[in-house]
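Teaching assistant here, posting this on the class forum so everyone can see the example we discussed in section. The complex has two components, and the goal was to see what a joint structure prediction looks like when all of them are supplied at once.
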Amino acid sequence: MTSTRDEFADLWGLYLPVAIIVFVVVSSAVLFALIRFRRRDGRVAAKRSSLPVAEALAALMLAAVTAVLLTATVRTEDRVDATVRPDLRIRVVAFQWGWRFEYPGRGVTVVGNSNAPPTFAVPVGETVEFSVTSRDVIHSFWIPSERFKRDAFPQRVSRFDLEFDEAGLDGGRCAEFCGLRHDAMGFDVLALPGPQFESWLRERRGAPR
Amino acid sequence: MTPATAAVPVNGALGWLASTDHKRTAARLLVTSFAFFLVGGAFALVMRSELAQPGLQIVSTDTYNELFTMHGSTMIYLVITPLALALGVYLVPLQVGASEIAAPRLTLLGYWLLASGGLTMYGGFLTDHGAGRAGWTAYYPLSGGGATPGVGMDMWILGVILAVAGSTLLAATILATIVGLRAPGMTMLRLPVFTWTMLITALMVVVSFPVLVTAMGLLFADRHLGGVFSSPGGPIAYQHLFWFYGHPVVYVMFFPFLGAVAEVTATFSRRRFFGYRPLVLSLLASAGLSMSVWAHHMFATGQVANEYFALTSHALIVPAGLEYLALIGTMVGGSILLRTPMLFAVGFMLLFLIGGLSGVMVASPPLDYHETDSYFVVAHFHYTLFAGSLFGAFAAVYYWFPKWTGTFLREGLGRLHFALLFVGANLTFFPMFFLGIDGMPRRVADYPPDAGFTSLNGLSTAGAFVIAAGIAVFIVNVLVSLRRRSPAGADPWEGHTLEWWAASPPERHNFRSLPPITSYAPLLDRREEPATRPATEGVGAR
């Protein structure tokens, strides 16, 4: 299990340079043609209207680029979607307009809404399995710093693994438009080293939340 | 055409309402969709003003939700799709050498359905709960009767049904014209490039648009009778139906403008369009693929075969690349005159490229997990729809305006219009890529002051007003040009295709005679080889 954040960075590190190179090449070709072939006295336009060899070569090149990108995507996707036996399970229930985080078997539940967003904790460096669902409309569980989101559907549970590499507080929020207070449907995730995480859990166990 | 309809010329108010001349229907559609564009644009200006600063200054969250819903619905259902079809309704019969569109009354009905659909949608603003406010996609259960009650939402659904059914009829008559009314000699591989793009567009419309009409009918039934989408698989089933329309429509809103840009590029390069056959093949491939990529809008649901849809989406790179090769290949070796239509064509090529390349980035599920529903996709689809399609539409308007009205648009104002739009579009939409990657979600009226989104949003808002200034210049240009006319002849640009053989504006039945149709550029053939062509074949309306 590698972190979604690293996987995103690696794949982005391929797609972004390819996009920039293609943009530079194509826009230079357009601007070059515009300047080099501007209308002047005596310029006669070429008559030729097809160049099958060039067209076939271009198609092959495009297919090669596509194959490279697609291979990288599928490999990354396989790793991101893979699930292992997790170190911790967290159940997430989204609702209009807030979140409920449950730690099954640990007796801890955190709830908050758009007026008082909740903060839940995770252990650093461990694999956390999230199972997300919704109590009403479709929401989406998004932690931008993890470079990952997953929709929360009513009457359905969606499972995925995340790993938090660094200790600290990060923001998260609902990404799927869900009605009036969608813009305020946030939460915070607190990544703590193992022992501190355990004491965070202990402090909340049995607390009337 | 029956003698009865031919004998009664319709003018004045009745002509405006009831003429079945395809050119008048198209003109009505152009003007109507431009009016809708101004309304949708005004919604955007209010939203951008609200987002300029954190906190709520101008509208409430509820109003903001109505605004972005109606902005998206306006632009997709009532502006870009109808603009594309209006170009087809006007130009396809002329380009294939027909005297009329097939089933002109059906075309007229299509227009009225579309216009009344728009008015029905807007009528929601007058109801107690306000207009539709579940986004232009109206995902279920948010769009259901429980989460979004009220007549306004029902009127939104009915409006979409009317507008999309109207678009389907318009496309069907364009398709029937290409299939059945081509002039003698106009074989399929002599169809002008624009007509090819309209043929493919019309095919996609007739296959995919009825699916949305059905989905909206089911949604309406669910709101009032219940039980349609309420099972555990219901919400995802709604998304499949929606995007089975929703992805092809992306290409419906792209191909006709690509076709227009291709015609402009060939004419202003004084050169036969390069790579016609590969372009036709790539259009067919794009259209086929566009019917099989819909679930790439649903990667983050975790309920679709992501890798399959990543495969079909990435495969679009090949035909899209060949389409660009054809455009650049036409310019290389040409004799290029950089008038306003060509300026907009070049703007289209450069800016749509950004839309396309960012499209590849959202076609990859591991990247899309982060980007979807963020401002990154807002930037992406505005680069395709605004900076792409709309630039193509303006290239078309500046190019064909002399044909439609007999007079040129002003060149100086055209250049100013282009400059403002080019700067404005980039200033508005480029910062949104960064906002999305930084974690700003779409469809929010507000963002926290400490999120680091403020300065980029400020830039974006400034850009929106530059765009508005550009559109104002365009309106002035049209008014000035129509009032102080500089007459254009039948063929002011040395065009390649048959519409330039007809008078400007064309007569009621388009042509008195036709030149020999020898290729996809029959008028260019005449200019290039006048000696070998029968010169007195017909004098047309000249």
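For the discussion questions: The mean pLDDT of chain A is 94. The two ends of chain A are 33 Å apart (CA to CA). Think about how each of these relates to the inputs above.
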